[in-house]
């Protein structure tokens, strides 16, 4: 499993509802990523983190990026005036998935 993350700062006067309306894709996206979590920082509610849970291998990324490229460009165009430059992010391979409500032995 992979996780794609993006950290952005909403421009002054832009709220999450406005961001979400522009961020949502125009059509359903088959395959991965199927689930994306969005979260606002508790310290600065203008900072938004998105995390895509991707059930794929790194070699699959170019194929699905090409497949969704046109829709992604439309979304990025809509977001252009709503967010500043990226504050960070990337694609990461999941190496641990722990339930901390149970004792875990190393």
TrEMBL record:
Taxonomic lineage: Bacteria, Bacillati, Actinomycetota, Actinomycetes, Kitasatosporales
Q: Name its species.
A: Streptomyces hundungensis
Its protein name is Uncharacterized protein
């Amino acid at each position: 499993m992979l996780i794609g993350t993006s950290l952005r700062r909403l421009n002054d006067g832009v709220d999450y509802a406005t961001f979400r309306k522009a961020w949502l894709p125009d059509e359903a996206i088959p395959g991965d990523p199927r689930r994306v979590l969005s979260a606002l920082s508790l310290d600065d509610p203008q900072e938004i983190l998105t995390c895509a849970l991707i059930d794929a291998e790194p070699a699959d990324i170019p194929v699905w990026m090409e497949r969704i490229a046109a829709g992604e460009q439309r979304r990025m165009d809509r977001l252009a005036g709503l967010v500043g430059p990226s504050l960070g992010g990337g694609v990461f391979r999941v190496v641990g998935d722990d339930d901390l409500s149970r004792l875990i032995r190393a």
